[in-house]
Amino acid sequence: KERDVDYLSSIEVLVIDHADIISMQNWSFLTTVVDHLNRLPSKQHGTNVMRIRPLYLDGHARFYRQSIILSSYLTPEINNLFNRNCLNYKGKMKLACEYKGVLQKVLLPVRQIYERFDADSIIQADDARLEYFTQKIFPKIKDSVQG
């Protein structure tokens, strides 16, 4: 079935908000839509061709589109989309916020204990981990909370 995507031909500002959440859902849908942006329309749709900028007719619209991708963190998929589809002739930029963290605000020292459990195979590792937790670790936590 042929799809009519001519309405995507004149997008000048692309904003992808919450790209990290979209990457957990249907990323291929987003890449398909972005791939269809700024292509020449297949039909005229009653448009006055004299009003269209020459850069659109020459197929250079994607180099003038402003693309903004917002995400809480960076993934390889977002990186690929940024490098492959954000091609503005003025260049591109990545901004990242650095979070200072909260570990220095912990007032009481927290003791971390690492425990090893045995599993017969990698396939049984999840079940062995759950069994070890319910048999060995959870009773200790339960006893310490109850007094």
TrEMBL record:
UTP25 NTP hydrolase-like domain: residues covered: 1-93
UTP25 C-terminal domain segment(s): 103-144
Keyword GTP-binding belongs to the record: no
GO cellular component, one term: small-subunit processome
Annotated InterPro entries: UTP25, UTP25_C, UTP25_NTPase-like
Any one GO molecular function term: U3 snoRNA binding
Keywords from the named record: Nucleus
Any one of the GO BP annotations: maturation of SSU-rRNA from tricistronic rRNA transcript (SSU-rRNA, 5.8S rRNA, LSU-rRNA)
Cellular compartment(s): Nucleus, Nucleolus
Family designation: Belongs to the UTP25 family.
Record protein name field: U3 small nucleolar RNA-associated protein 25
Organism per entry: Noccaea caerulescens
